[in-house]
Amino acid sequence: xxxxxxxxxxxxxxxxxxxxxxxxxxxxxxxxxxxxxxxxxxxxxxxxxxxxxxxxxxxxxxxxxxxxxxxxxxxxxxxxxxxxxxxxxxxxxxxxxxxxxxxxxxxxxxxxxxxxxxxxxxxxxxxxxxxxxxxxxxxxxxxxxxxxxxxxxxxxxxxxxxxxxxxxxxxxxxxxxxxxxxxxxxxxxxxxxxxxxxxxxxxxxxxxxxxxxxxxxxxxxxxxxxxxxxxxxxxxxxxxxxxxxxxxxxxxxxxxxxxxxxxxxxxxxxxxxxxxxxxxxxxxxxxxxxxxxxxxxxxxxxxxxxxxxxxxxxxxxxxxxxxxxxxxxxxxxxxxxxxxxxxxxxxxxxxxxxxxxxxxxxxxxxxxxxxxxxxxxxxxxxxxxxxxxxxxxxxxxxxxxxxxxxxxxxxxxxxxxxxxxxxxxxxxxxxxxxxxxxxxxxxxxxxxxxxxxxxxxxxxxxxxxxxxxxxxxxxxxxxxxxxxxxxxxxxxxxxxxxxxxxxxxxxxxxxxxxxxxxxxxxxxxxxxxxxxxxxxxxxxxxxxxxxxxxxxxxxxxxxxxxxxxxxxxxxxxxxxxxxxxxxxxxxxxxxxxxxxxxxxxxxxxxxxxxxxxxxxxxxxxxxxxxxxxxxxxxxxxxxxxxxxxxxxxxxxxxxxxxxxxxxxxxxxxxxxxxxxxxxxxxxxxxxxxxxxxxxxxxxxxxxxxxxxxxxxxxxxxxxxxxxxxxxxxxxxxxxxxxxxxxxxxxxxxxxxxxxxxx
Length: 758
What we know:
Membrane topology: Multi-pass membrane protein
EC number: 2.4.1.109
Family: Belongs to the TMTC family.
Number of strands: 4
Shape: elongated
GO biological process, one term: endoplasmic reticulum unfolded protein response
Structural class: mainly alpha
Low-confidence stretches: 1-11, 17-24
Helix content: 55-70%
Number of helices: 33
Pathway: Protein modification; protein glycosylation
């Protein structure tokens, strides 16, 4: 015989847990949906969640992946593992003033494992892990929703039957196919949210297990409560939101395990009723468990605070303009507008964007702004739900609405700007966890609608249609995350006022060599945000390469005026001033750049070029030497040292520098070429020939390599080989300087030798 949860008495907490909804209605009665065995339900959810994001598996590293993965030294084997515990998510020291204080060492550790197992930066492995994680989380949701929504079925002996409640299956499917999750799954950096969610759910399930694994004479297991705290700590080490599970566990304990009526409790507190113990506060060890959760949470936060340091993260106005508003009213009204946008993304995830900052959402500065309607709608819905959660006479309804609101709101609190300033306006990734609460509320709403509907099959078909549309939207959005070009261009229609979107489209075009189109987008980025120094810097660089030096100088000068510590702009300004032959100003700009960035090898390299132009050879060599000390693989600096020493007749020193460089960068053909020239002048013909041939093998289409090897053979007396390589050089570059003259000299010499021989 089969019993639903509400059909039996519950003499202890274990039975309470199995029959949380005893004496209360079951959502499954009202949902026209499939009742599947648990393993089949989990396979269906896993398959559908996989189909949603499968086409992202072979995508590139995009957007923030470059900084968090490719440029993050913490992923490389040479970085000690211990450093991960003192660095932020992006590889910077937490003690640094420029650190964002995003402390996620376990997420970085998984990136490092991906890198080591793949043997390099191959994005496929990173993407596959993200997709698998989302599938696992979606499957776990069936168990989580079974507990939160009820509907578990038991035999007459109290054993749970292996059937997935219809309501939990529907809620898990709604979660699995939600398009707003695309950023977390298709964007590799979203691994932080996925890992956090995984341990978040495991912590919740572990806490629930505390009431199933109790031994005789004990109402709950302290061990599993502590395991839940540890799993919550692990979730926080993946991403900061993870700590909120401890609060949710406390809410679940109070409402579901102890069946506390919040409204009744508030009344008793207000009227100082002495029968508070009857409200469930002191029953079944609730206070003890909440004390464990609070102590665990406080300890985790204290350790996190000690590691992070006391200084808050440094964000700029463009990251989160509302938080920099002088008026408390403007800040409050815009924060609430941001909340309404997050809610809208859950309700209608059609307009999705990789970045919502930089003017994408203009500030509300007056109550006459029509967008105030969105705030009113949000709070109207929230207040209505809260009133129902508190005041409804239906205990089952109170429980589901309170848990739904709890899972919707509590995980979102770290991103709400209420406790500290965050570095974004709206971020789709931060609503991965809150969407659990949304799915609870939506499933409950569907059950109410189904209860009233006469044609339930039509309603079921409509829900299937919504799921299908979401699957298609996920697949489309995943394809947009496959490459930066598609991702950035997809944002142009969603956030046309976002300067960063135009900047990223321009940068992507510039990287592909389309400078003319890149200029257009960079100019638009600067127009939308006249203080966008990075756009000015990149635009100035392109104009410099196109020899539009005066406009480039204006842009770069404005950039360093707006941000005086912008080292890259100071260096680029120095390059432009050098091209304009304003050498003193260029030198000053280079040194200013180095002042703001002590370890700046590229700037030392350009400073060396300036000194070489001024014939300050010792200063040039010192600058290039500094560049190679800071960056031993700086090929251009090594080359310039060899060439300068060669040109000034210091062949022995040039040879020593060349050999040192090749030891550090053994496969650099340009270094082989430069050292071969020096060895040839030192009459070390055999060694010079070997290096020339090795350089030609690495880069066979370099005319100068063949031309200089021909000169070596010419000097050495191997005239036939000299003739061969002169001809190859002229074929590759008919205008190669000096080669044609040397070839004509050789031909005349060969003709003279033939006449003598005749």
